[in-house]
Amino acid sequence: MNEPEKVLVSACLLGRECRYDARVNTDRPLMDELVSAGLEPVAFCPEEHGGLGTPRPPAWIERESAAAVLDGRDRVVTDRGVDVTAEFVHGAEGALDLCRVHGITRAFLKARSPSCGSSQTHVAHELVDGRGVTAELLHRHGVSVTSVEGRRD
């Protein structure tokens, strides 16, 4: 019998209270879709893996983009100006490592997150088109990232 395909999923979408403000983002339709497709979710929170606690201050990419963060030209900062770039990059690298260990080629990540957003993220206090740090690193390494809003019943 074949093992189910493993997919990376933002832990907050699976009910873990790891969102920056510790609120719940459980996404039941996503959970149902994964089960019906025979996919095995591997829960991961890049920000917690990177060493940031929960709750934690909101953060965003300072000026440009996640690509610029990964290339060393930009930072991720909290609402108080604290540089959390190293934590975000470490969390992204942890996600990529997990994908490599489990042969994961697909990820379902929380929309609009500065880590996980795959089509929109927060830059300079604004919601803009683009990826978060983890989504960008996974994309660079061929992992297909799907954005999931969260909190759907």
SSE diagram, text form:
Elements: E1 5-10, H1 28-36, E2 39-44, H2 46-49, E3 59-61, H3 66-70, E4 76-78, H4 85-102, E5 106-110, E6 120-123, E7 126-129, H5 133-140, E8 144-148
List keywords for this structure.
153 residues; alpha/beta; four-stranded parallel sheet
Percentage of residues assigned to helices: 25-40%
Instruction: Identify the strand order in the major beta sheet.
Output: 2-1-5-8
Rounded average pLDDT: 95
Number of helices: 5
End-to-end gap:
32 Å
Largest sheet: 4 strands, parallel
Apparent shape: globular
Indicate the proportion of strand residues: 15-25%
Provide the structure class: alpha/beta
**How large is the radius of gyration?**
15 Å
Number of domains: 1
Number-wise, the strands total 8
Topology as H/E string?
EHEHEHEHEEEHE
The stretches of 5 or more residues where confidence is low (pLDDT under 50) are none
